[in-house]
Design goal:
65 residues; five-stranded mixed β-sheet; mainly beta
Length: 65
């Protein structure tokens, strides 16, 4: 079973949300379904920086999922 941890999201439409991520994921991005971003029904994409903080990258249209 993959170990998960909760991280806080920074910037973007989901600022302050806490979401679970897989600790050892080799592709450490998360795209969360969101009606709060630029594209309702799309996803908000977040990734960790070098210090481990998770920052907003951009919003994805529903057809980009």
């Amino acid at each position: 079973m993959d170990e998960t941890t909760n991280v806080e999201l920074h910037g973007g439409p989901l600022d302050g949300w806490r979401v679970p991520v897989t600790v050892d994921d080799p592709d450490p991005w998360t795209a969360i379904i969101s009606d709060h971003g630029r594209y309702p029904g799309g996803r908000s994409l977040y990734a960790p920086d070098a210090a481990g903080a998770w920052w907003w990258v951009r919003d994805l249209r529903p057809d980009e999922i």
